[in-house]
Design goal:
alpha+beta, 115 residues, five-stranded antiparallel sheet
Length: 115
């Protein structure tokens, strides 16, 4: 087997992936750097989406129905969410952390805050 970083033949245990501690550290530092860049850009979009939902919802309300154009004008990105939950009626709620939205067929969006 060869080292993942420098392609030198590895001696020792059969499950070894790197020839030295330096190669192992180099591999993981660079992997983390690439991952951090992707995560940072996605988190920026998620944070913006949450801020938009919270701005529309307000501090006191737990839910509100708005036209989809309101979210579009604020550059809300419908592709990014943290998770999806299907309610008892089969409707999908798209969550951004503790806030969610559900789209209706008539271009309206229900925004909900989890209690």
């Amino acid at each position: 087997m060869k080292c993942k970083v420098c392609n030198i033949e590895i001696t020792g245990r059969s499950d070894k992936k790197f020839c030295s501690v330096e190669c192992k550290n180099y591999y993981h530092v660079n992997l983390r750097r690439v991952t951090d860049v992707a995560v940072r850009s996605i988190n920026k979009i998620l944070h913006r989406n949450r801020s938009i939902l919270l701005e529309i919802l307000g501090k006191r309300k737990t839910q509100i129905k708005v036209n989809r154009l309101v979210l579009d004008k604020k550059k809300f990105n419908f592709k990014y969410h943290t998770h999806i939950i299907r309610n008892s009626r089969g409707k999908l709620f798209f969550y951004v952390y503790d806030l969610a939205w559900m789209e209706f067929s008539d271009n309206e969006v229900l925004i909900v805050k989890r209690r």
